Amino acid sequence: MYPDEWPQFFTATVKEWKPLLEPNKYKDIIIQSLQFLVADKRISLNAFVIMNNHLHLIWQACNGHTLQKVQQSFLKFTAQTIKFDLIKNNSEILEQYKAGTADREYQFWKRRSLGVELFSPKVFKQKLEYIHNNPVKAGLCKFPEQYHYSSAKFYHSGVDDFSMITHYV
Predict the structure, then answer these.
(1) 3-class DSSP assignment, residue 164
(2) What SS3 state is found at 50?
(3) Over its length of 169 residues, how does the chain's per-residue pLDDT go in tens digits?
(4) Which residue, 20, 48, 67, 120, shows the most beta carbons closer than 10 Å to its own?
(5) 23 φ, ψ to 5°?
């Protein structure tokens, strides 16, 4: 049975499509943040892929939470954590993300992330395949389940290396 509230296909893109997430330690920050949101019962996470300059999720807010607030805190926390690491370890890269706006010194995520409600199982499956094939299309692997920073392995073999995925069926 399909859930009462629609899951959402969410895309967050790094400002100017820069490869900010290329170092695995920044992908790991994303993973840890998602694991926290799942463990804290703020979201149910059905799928994800973390690329070098963007990420895709299929997630759903849990009772008492809204995706808008979860999204805000997720993007803010990950940006702050990456910023602190860059301040400590790579200040010259940090300068590429100077915001030049009154409300922030640095900007890592492009404003107005994409969120699309997945209103039918057919659309859900289309987005799930799109997410999992992203690394293949980018030439990072031959098969989706080979890419570590993705839920494809879970859907292929049932192994959840990150302990945070909820199967969509």
Answers:
(1) coil
(2) strand
(3) 344 468 999 999 999 999 999 999 999 999 999 999 999 999 999 999 999 999 999 999 998 999 899 999 999 999 999 999 999 999 899 999 998 787 888 999 998 778 889 989 999 999 999 999 999 999 999 999 999 999 999 999 999 999 999 998 6
(4) 48
(5) -65, 135
Whose tokens are 């808008």? That residue is 68
Q: CB-based contacts of 152: which residues, under 8 Å, 6+ apart?
A: 49, 131, 132, 135, 144, 145
Please check whether residue 124 is in contact with residue 113, taking contact to mean a CB–CB distance below 8 angstroms. Answer: no
- For residue 56, what are the contacts with CB-CB under 8 A and spacing of at least 6? 9, 10, 11, 47, 48, 49, 127, 130, 131, 134
